């Protein structure tokens, strides 16, 4: 039977210990922000942790793409005080510290995801949901107290939390969180591809985003991803010596599916070799599956994870989080079927995911992906033809001295702003503007929810002032922001 305290789902871990360990998880992360409020979850986490900093126990907190987590370990009484004070701070965030904390957050330079993951999610989702991990928005100094308090009131409610407790249960635990239903989350629109594509940028690494189905009773999709990661690590680190960090990330996708990103960083000069290793691992595993020794190793690792701790407790937490976001429960792992998984099973899952894969390579290595059958794609969507409308060209001086300006053309239509540049024809509809950023140098950047960015620069094309005036009337004031004045060097 499910246990609740003050509306918070509680999972007790049967650990025979005198001290108490707690993990309070809220199903809200950076994907639930907006372009205008990027970083608000991290700011809130810093503000509320400041209120418990004087407690003499171990504590920490983290915000990632999907969740915000608070952990503490100590005597039952101190841990209970931590939870009670933390929840009161979430119900009434101490926003008077926001300006000071903005400088600390900027100096921290924390990322909710690895740059390769963030870039690929931006390609998939644009300037919304998980795709926001790639963008900076207004910066921490652009957040207002209202941004923080409204975010906390919506997402940090008791119904959106799960508390795990190991050891003695703290007495007088109140968990005075805001009340309200589990917030609804509308899945963001996404780009999908019918063929494997590759996108490029300057990050010295290689990686791939794969859409995988819901895990079954042997966790076959997860097993396939772990096998791919293991093959890449073997080739990039232990054989080639090209990489140190090889890892993976995931975000929930519609209909219970998952977007997995597997990536490998590249030391200087090894970018080509790392791309070749990632491409070769993916293509071979999708065609032939793992070797018997590779598969046996991954199955043994899965069995070891099941043997460590209580698998039913872990499944209870996963199912509690799935329930919050409306996903189906995970069935128990069938160890007999797990041990019987064949290389062809792994190949089938990866072959299916390969058909719509989004690869990433450092720009000088894109030919490696294309040779393997990946189609080169722009980082944001482009349209086939320039629409009819009022056109703007860069002034003659810009075309004379700036090579990129010679191919540029802006079009203003009744429905959208359009820019033609070397990458193609980009369109941002008036009703799909995610934000408008003002730069100190006079440039205005129009950021579309689809991931396209259109600069409106008086120095780059005639008529820019009139377009800015129109943006002022069309775009709500709360979507405008100034470029952040803070940097990690300040």
Q: In a few lines, what is going on in this structure?
A:
The chain has helices at residues 40-50, 76-91, 98-108, 115-125, 145-155, 220-239, 271-288, 292-307, 311-324, 335-339, 343-354, 366-371, 396-401, 464-474, and strands at 3-5, 8-13, 20-26, 58-63, 68-74, 161-166, 197-201, 205-212, 246-252, 258-265, 358-362, 375-376, 390-392, 409-412, 416-421, 424-429, 433-438, 444-448, 453-456, 480-482. It is α+β, with helices and mostly antiparallel strands and 490 residues long.
Report on the structure:
This protein is of the alpha+beta class. The chain folds into 3 domains: 3-114 and 133-166, 2-Layer Sandwich (Cytochrome Bc1 Complex, Chain A, domain 1); 197-376, 2-Layer Sandwich (Cytochrome Bc1 Complex, Chain A, domain 1); 390-482, PH-domain like (Roll). Helix content is 34%, strand content 22%. The chain contains 14 helices and 20 strands. The chain has helices spanning 40-50, 76-91, 98-108, 115-125, 145-155, 220-239, 271-288, 292-307, 311-324, 335-339, 343-354, 366-371, 396-401, 464-474, and strands at 3-5, 8-13, 20-26, 58-63, 68-74, 161-166, 197-201, 205-212, 246-252, 258-265, 358-362, 375-376, 390-392, 409-412, 416-421, 424-429, 433-438, 444-448, 453-456, 480-482. Strand 17 and strand 18 (444-448) form a beta hairpin. Helix 1 (40-50) packs across helix 3 and helix 6 crosses helix 8. The longest helix is centred in the middle third of the chain and has 20 residues, at 220-239. The radius of gyration is 25 Å and the shape is globular. The N and C termini lie far apart (53 Å). The relative contact order is 0.13.
């Amino acid at each position: 039977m499910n246990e609740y305290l003050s509306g918070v789902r509680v999972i007790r871990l049967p650990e025979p210990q005198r001290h108490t360990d707690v993990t309070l998880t809220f199903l809200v992360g950076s994907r639930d922000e907006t372009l205008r409020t990027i970083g608000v979850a991290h700011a809130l986490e810093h503000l509320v942790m400041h209120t418990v900093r004087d407690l003499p126990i171990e504590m920490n907190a983290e915000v990632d793409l999907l969740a915000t987590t608070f952990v503490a370990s100590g005597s039952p009484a101190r841990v209970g005080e931590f939870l009670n004070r933390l929840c009161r701070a979430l119900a009434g965030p101490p926003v008077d510290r926001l300006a000071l904390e903005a400088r600390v957050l900027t100096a921290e330079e924390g990322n909710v995801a690895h740059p390769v993951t963030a870039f690929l999610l931006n390609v998939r989702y644009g300037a919304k949901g998980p795709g926001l991990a790639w963008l900076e928005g207004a910066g921490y100094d652009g957040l207002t107290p209202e941004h923080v308090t409204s975010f906390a009131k919506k997402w940090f409610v008791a119904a959106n939390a799960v508390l795990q407790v190991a050891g003695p249960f703290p007495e007088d635990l109140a968990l005075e969180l805001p009340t309200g239903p589990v917030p609804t989350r509308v899945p963001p629109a996404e780009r999908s591809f019918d063929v494997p594509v590759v996108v490029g940028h300057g990050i010295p690494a290689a990686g791939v985003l794969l859409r995988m189905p819901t895990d079954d009773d042997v966790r076959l999709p997860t097993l396939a991803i772990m096998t791919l990661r293991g093959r890449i690590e073997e080739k990039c680190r232990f054989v080639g010596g090209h990489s140190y960090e090889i890892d993976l990330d995931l975000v929930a996708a519609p209909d219970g599916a998952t977007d997995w990103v597997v990536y490998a960083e590249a030391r200087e000069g090894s970018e080509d070799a790392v791309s070749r290793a990632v491409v070769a691992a993916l293509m071979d595993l999708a065609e032939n599956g793992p070797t018997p020794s590779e598969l046996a190793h991954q199955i043994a690792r899965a069995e070891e994870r099941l043997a460590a701790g209580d698998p039913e407790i872990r499944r209870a937490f996963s199912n509690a989080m799935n329930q919050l976001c409306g996903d189906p429960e995970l069935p128990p792992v069938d160890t007999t079927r797990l041990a019987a998984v064949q290389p062809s099973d792994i190949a089938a899952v990866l072959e299916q995911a390969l058909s719509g894969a989004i690869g990433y390579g450092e720009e000088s290595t894109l030919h490696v992906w294309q040779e393997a059958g990946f189609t080169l794609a722009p980082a944001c969507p482009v349209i086939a033809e320039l629409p009819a409308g009022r056109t703007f060209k860069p002034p003659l001086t810009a075309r004379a001295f700036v090579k990129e300006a010679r191919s540029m053309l802006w079009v203003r239509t009744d429905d959208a702003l359009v820019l033609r540049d070397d990458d193609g024809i980009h369109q941002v509809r008036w009703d799909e503007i995610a934000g408008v950023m003002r730069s100190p140098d006079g440039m205005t950047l129009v950021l579309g929810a689809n991931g396209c960015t259109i600069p409106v620069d008086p120095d780059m094309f005639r008529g820019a002032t009139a377009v800015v005036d129109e943006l002022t009337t069309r775009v709500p004031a709360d979507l405008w922001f100034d470029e952040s004045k803070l940097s990690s060097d300040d």
